Fold this sequence. Notes:
With 132 residues, the chain is of the alpha+beta class. The protein has one domain (3-33, 43-52, 60-123): Jelly Rolls (Sandwich), CATH 2.60.120. Helices cover 19% and strands 29% of the residues. It contains two helices and seven strands; from the N terminus they run H-H-E-E-E-E-E-E-E. The strands form two sheets. A four-stranded antiparallel beta sheet has the order 1-7-2-5, with no helix packed on it. A three-stranded antiparallel beta sheet has the order 4-3-6, with no helix packed on it. Strand 3 (78-81) and strand 4 form a beta hairpin. The protein is globular, with a radius of gyration of 15 Å.
Amino acid sequence: MDKCWKNLFEYCKLNYMKGVESLEEFYQRKFEWLPEDIRKDIGHFNIFHLAPFREGQATSVPYRRRDFYKIVLVKGNSRVHYADQVVEVKNQVLAFSNPQIPYKWEHLNRNFDVVYCIFNTRFFHQFGQFSH
Length: 132
């Protein structure tokens, strides 16, 4: 099967079977806890530093859509998988993701450093329609 079709098939299978990852699911998957104010209607913003690789730790982010935005700064070689393409990252990248596009981030070596922030649409409510 052609690689493009294989990626598209994986996108359809995972995206529609698992659905969209919510902020709550993200916190449960990554940290096994929820911030107290996450359910309040004030918007959400948080910053994280991804710790260096440890034995037994996953080196990739699951392939699916999220219901939040992410800005990520990565130092190290990695690969970003989208439905129709794979983007190779050499050395470092500043990347932006949104709820409309599913992806999977794969770190290619154990020597990487990642800082990222996540936020939802309500975080920008005072600036108007952020999603347009």
